[in-house]
């Protein structure tokens, strides 16, 4: 190489040669989050992203503020104290926990570690759009099984497993607000080959107060192909900090620890997460609030002649029997008043809207605005 003349060996410049992304990447529809603003309104009521109605634990806010004193330091790349706190609250092994930049990052890393071109990644019709995004991002094919009554259908999922299937993603509770009982998840696991990874996304687990529900810890412990993902974005009200975690068998956890960025969770996020876990009273107040206002919202929507899907979470999916035009027009009307709910177009549910459980005041105002638009008397 020493004798090489300048420019020699270089490929001639060609205007038509440009960097091209890997196959699959351009098939990804960029994620569209819940709306946070509307034109011509000076106040918005954001009920579009299933965030916490009661904000954040004051203890977590304080810890976040204190973390400002060490912004010049790298965070603990192993998130040792945070993993320890999660382990003790949930009765888990700290070394089988991996923390992430939101659970979204962990879903991405699982796809990166276990699927690639030629592979299939299986999920359900209304699971979570991120599953097909992460599948495509690694060049795999996203396959979706139909649901029954907006609920995960285990038989339909198992029927779609092929020799190419590498990962099955199930949100439980689902993005529709429904859940499948523990026994159904076990039946799903029993129906999967041992080399297929079952990812149980329990982002809304904290809201579920039902005896036959489990976030999936027991399945993780009793098998070697199940991983559970969790988040601080919903019940803990820390969506802005991006903090998630997962619990899996040591071999799966090892893969994630090799793939993740060395400092993937910021110091302030770790500090706030630990404090949030310690504020049991705040979590309980959030749970109590949702336990009373989620059923209230369902009842009121039904009173307006709509079809709410029974929810075990902090949001309600509602179907408009009149079809897509009335869902879209209601959405538009609410937006003119600064009330932002979620359209479900990304899931093909154009005749539905999804509404986060907000404060009492927000819920009453929302229903009054819908009542006015739909012309239903109280
Ligand atoms: C909100 C949500 C998440 C959480 O994502 P983060 O990246 O942790 O904020 C994961 N899965 C589902 C189904 C969700 O609705």
Q: Any chance you could write out the topology, listing elements then pairs?
A:
Blueprint (H helix, E strand, L loop, with lengths): L44 E2 L11 H9 L13 H11 L6 E4 L1 H13 L5 E5 L4 H9 L3 E5 L8 H6 L5 E7 L10 H9 L6 E5 L15 H6 L3 E6 L12 E4 L2 H10 L7 H12 L1 H24 L3 E2 L6 E5 L4 H13 L2 E2 L1 E3 L4 E8 L3 H15 L4
Parallel strand pairs: 1-11, 3-4, 3-5, 5-6, 6-7
Antiparallel strand pairs: 2-8, 7-8, 9-10, 10-13, 12-13
Helix pairs in contact: 1-9, 2-9, 3-4, 11-12
Bound molecules: pyridoxal-5'-phosphate (PLP).
Structural features, described:
This protein has 378 residues and is of the alpha/beta class. It has 2 domains: 34-54 and 281-374, Aspartate Aminotransferase, domain 1 (Alpha-Beta Complex); 58-278, Aspartate Aminotransferase, domain 2. The chain is 36% helix and 15% strand. It has 12 helices and 13 strands. The strands form 3 sheets. It has a 7-stranded mixed β-sheet with strand order 2-8-7-6-5-3-4, sandwiched between helices. Strands 9-10-13-12 form a 4-stranded antiparallel β-sheet. α4 (129-137) links the parallel β3 (120-124) and β4. α2 (80-90) runs parallel beside α9 (267-278) and α3 (102-114) packs across α4. The longest helix is centred in the C-terminal third of the chain and has 24 residues, at 280-303. The radius of gyration is 23 Å and the shape is globular. The N and C termini lie far apart (84 Å). The relative contact order is 0.16. Bound molecules: pyridoxal-5'-phosphate (PLP). The site of pyridoxal-5'-phosphate has 14 residues, from α3.
């Amino acid at each position: 190489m020493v004798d090489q003349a300048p420019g020699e060996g270089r490929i001639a410049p060609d205007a038509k040669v440009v960097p091209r992304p890997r196959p699959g990447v351009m098939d990804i529809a960029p994620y569209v989050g819940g709306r946070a603003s509307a034109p011509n309104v000076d106040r918005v009521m954001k009920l579009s992203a299933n965030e916490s109605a009661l904000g954040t634990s004051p203890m977590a806010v304080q810890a976040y503020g204190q973390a400002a004193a060490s912004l010049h330091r790298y965070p603990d790349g192993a998130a040792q104290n945070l993993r320890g706190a999660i382990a003790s609250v949930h009765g888990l092994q700290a070394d089988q926990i991996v923390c992430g930049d939101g659970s979204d990052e962990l879903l991405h890393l699982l796809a990166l570690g276990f699927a690639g071109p030629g592979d299939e990644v299986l999920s359900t019709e209304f699971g979570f759009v991120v599953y097909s995004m992460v599948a495509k991002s690694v060049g795999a094919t996203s396959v979706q099984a139909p649901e029954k009554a907006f609920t995960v259908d285990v038989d339909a999922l198992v029927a779609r497993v092929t020799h190419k299937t590498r990962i099955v993603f199930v949100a439980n509770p689902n993005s529709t607000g429904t859940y499948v009982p523990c026994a159904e998840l076990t039946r799903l696991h029993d129906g999967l080959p041992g080399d297929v990874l079952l990812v149980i996304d329990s982002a809304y687990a904290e809201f579920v107060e039902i005896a036959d529900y489990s976030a999936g810890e027991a399945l993780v412990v009793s098998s070697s192909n199940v991983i559970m993902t969790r988040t601080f974005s919903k019940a803990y009200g820390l969506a802005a900090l991006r903090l998630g975690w997962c619990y899996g068998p040591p071999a799966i956890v090892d893969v994630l620890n090799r793939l993740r960025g060395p400092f993937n969770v910021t110091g302030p996020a770790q500090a706030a997460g630990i404090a949030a876990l310690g504020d049991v009273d705040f979590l309980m107040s959030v749970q109590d609030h949702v336990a009373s206002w989620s059923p209230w919202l369902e009842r009121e929507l039904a009173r307006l002649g709509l079809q709410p899907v029974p929810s075990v979470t902090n949001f309600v999916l509602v179907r408009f029997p009149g079809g897509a035009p009335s869902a879209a027009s209601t959405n538009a009307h609410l937006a003119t008043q600064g009330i932002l709910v979620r359209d479900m177009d990304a899931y093909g549910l154009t005749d539905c809207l999804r509404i986060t459980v907000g404060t009492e005041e927000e819920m009453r105002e929302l229903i009054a605005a819908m009542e006015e638009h739909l012309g239903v008397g109280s």
